[in-house]
Amino acid sequence: MGEAVFLTLKLAAVTTFFLMLLGVPLAWWLARSERWWKEVIGTLVALPLVLPPTVLGFYLLIALAPQSPLGEAIKAITGFSLPFTFAGLVVGSVIYSLPFAVQPVRNAFEAIGNDPLEAAATLRAGPFDRFFNVALPLARPGLLTGAILGFAHTVGEFGVVLMIGGNIPGETKVLSVAIYDYVETLQWQKAHILAFGMVTFSFAVILSTMLIERHVRRRFP
User: Where is the ABC transmembrane type-1 domain positioned along the sequence (predicted)?
Assistant: First the structure.
């Protein structure tokens, strides 16, 4: 049980790091770009919101399989295959949780408007200065919301992690898969303990997100 908890928290932490590393620049581009096809990219990012997790996990498994072109390239570079490994879980989790990180950050960037950035430009601030010293500090509540939602969503994953990671103790067996195992083997008490912990965690995440959003509304009326 403890092993599954540790693995889940580790997966959520690593996934959140990559979500923010990839999601913040993507959210900035989606918020600022005027290209007509940006909404096509936005739709692709949001697709995991409506796709059944097993469908996404199935196609990720096919795409990353050792015999696929992408899988062969990854194995040639890294020396190992991604399916049924922790690294594979990270890849699947980043793709599946990306909209939960990108959308709040995009909304925060859009709420800033042009005035603060134009004022910084008149003071000879370059694009990087405007991004790091103006946009990011003003979008801090959105960044925090995106990180919290990305972390929490990763903790609660089931379909994607089961499809691409399987059920390997100590390697890919996360909390949601452990609960499923306990229910299948009629170990109700252990299932209750893990499930109640996840309910409590989810309540805390939703409450934190609502408080952050209220702060955002006050700051950007």
Answer: 5-211
